[in-house]
Design a protein that fits this description.
Blueprint (H helix, E strand, L loop, with lengths): L1 E7 L4 H13 L5 E6 L2 H10 L3 E6 L5 H13 L2 E8 L14 H22 L8 E5 L12 H21 L5 E5 L8 H5 L7 H4 L5 H13 L4 E2 L3 H12 L2 H34 L1
Parallel strand pairs: 1-2, 1-4, 2-3, 4-5, 5-6, 6-7
Helix pairs in contact: 1-8, 4-5
Length: 277
């Protein structure tokens, strides 16, 4: 029997940070299984870890590749002590103008793959095992301009809360990780199709803080982990205020930011015109 930690989305960002921090904390783990699509990045990460690692290059949205993961787990008589579901992505922009395949891809990766992998891994867990599901503060409120992504994360949060209640009697504990904006390559992908609110950048946190708190909250069997005071306040407001009021406020913030951006653009253009003269 081998005690394992399985991390999806381990090639970058928060998934990579989970591997680095848990490598220091867990002495009773035999192997880290690192799952992602980019072998080169997984190889780099594996070289940074003290624990023995197994690299699994796969697309978790493919059933055949999940079959391969489960077969490997059976062959090695693995016990999953921690499953960390970090694989996922988001795209900004109005839904009607988004590429349909990419929008559906968000649902497949963020919801369907996470759900199927979790279901497959539970039989290999034992009392004391943990599941960490990467949600987002976007789960707290519908997000115009980020509609599909926010909806997928609302699913992850709801699913994780219910699953945690179901598994508690078996001694398996689920924590839904709900950070706000995190300083990772996430926005390099998300902003290819739209721009995020500038105010979100002021709430940006580092991945090491998100992961450190998530591990602490998981240790204390907390169902939700929210990093940073701004996001904790946002969560409270989303619970107390009507959704319609908050959506109107978001729309107002967008208008103000749009006007400010346009004003700055005109000022830059005016200065360039003066230099030419």
């Amino acid at each position: 029997m081998k005690n394992l930690i399985i991390i999806t989305g381990a090639s970058s960002g928060i998934g990579r940070e989970f591997a680095l921090q848990m490598d220091d904390y867990f002495s009773n783990i035999d192997e880290f299984w690192l799952v992602a699509r980019r072998r080169e990045e997984l190889d780099k990460l594996a070289k940074c870890l003290v624990h023995k690692t197994r690299i699994l290059v796969m697309d978790i949205t493919k059933d055949a590749q999940l079959d391969r993961l489960e077969d490997t787990l059976m062959d090695h008589h693995g016990i999953v002590r921690m499953l960390v579901n970090c694989a996922g992505f988001g795209l900004l922009g109005d839904f009607a103008s988004q590429d349909r395949a990419k929008a559906l891809g968000m649902i497949r990766t963020n919801c369907l793959a996470l759900t199927e992998l979790t279901h497959r891994m539970i039989p290999y867990m034992r009392p004391g095992s943990r599941i960490l599901q990467m949600a987002s503060s976007a789960a707290f409120l519908p997000q115009p301009g980020f509609a599909v992504y926010a909806a997928t994360k609302a699913y992850v949060l709801s699913f994780s809360r219910a699953l945690g209640q179901e598994l508690e009697k078996a001694g398996i504990y689920v924590t839904s990780v709900c950070p706000g904006p995190v300083d990772t390559p996430f926005f390099e992908i998300a902003e290819q199709t739209g721009a995020s609110l500038a105010v979100k950048k002021y709430a940006m946190v580092s991945p090491d803080k998100v992961v450190a708190l998530a591990l602490k909250d998981s240790y204390y069997k907390r169902p939700v982990s929210v990093c940073g005071l701004p996001m904790k306040i946002f969560r409270m407001i989303a619970k107390l205020w009507p959704c319609s009021v908050l959506l109107r406020m978001l729309d107002l913030i967008k208008q103000v930011e749009s006007e400010r951006t346009e004003r700055k653009r005109k000022e830059r253009k005016g200065k360039e015109t003066e230099r030419i003269r």
